[in-house]
Amino acid sequence: MSTHSIGLLPLRGLMWGLALGLLAGCGGAEGGQEKEQKKGQQADTFTIVAPRDVEEQIDLGEGGASVGDVYVFSGPIYDESQERELGRIDGQCTTTSSPGPSAEARRLCIANATFTEEHEGAEIDAQGVGRIEAEDVVFAVTGGTGEYRNARGQATFEFRPNGDVVISYELDTAQ
Asked: What does pTM read for this prediction?
């Protein structure tokens, strides 16, 4: 088992971005959140920022990246200005292909953003396959709890050079 202080660097923050980005302003018109009606459905678009906090790379197979390796992450999430903490993100990724230097490695990831205070612990769940060499990654939003219990849509994770993961959500939250 090996621990990296920036375990996402080779993964380009895929998991962090994913889980961390799931929550961006999530409250009224604050934090970059917009609400709009689309064909009778409630649509939410917002962005959150997740600095890399706790991360662990677990090397389970051959030394170096190999199928079955696990990456686990957790940390706070903030509004776009990074002035207000919105909750936490937690997730994990499992390496599903590690074809070597000529092809791109991939990880199957799940990420859960839990919001505090005005969202009463509501959660957003996302999952997808992340490409380790990608600049940004799009995951499916597969549901949630509380005000996000019927959420569907997508979460785009952008990995910044400073280590922050910016997550932009486009949700259909029709009840």
From this structure: 0.73
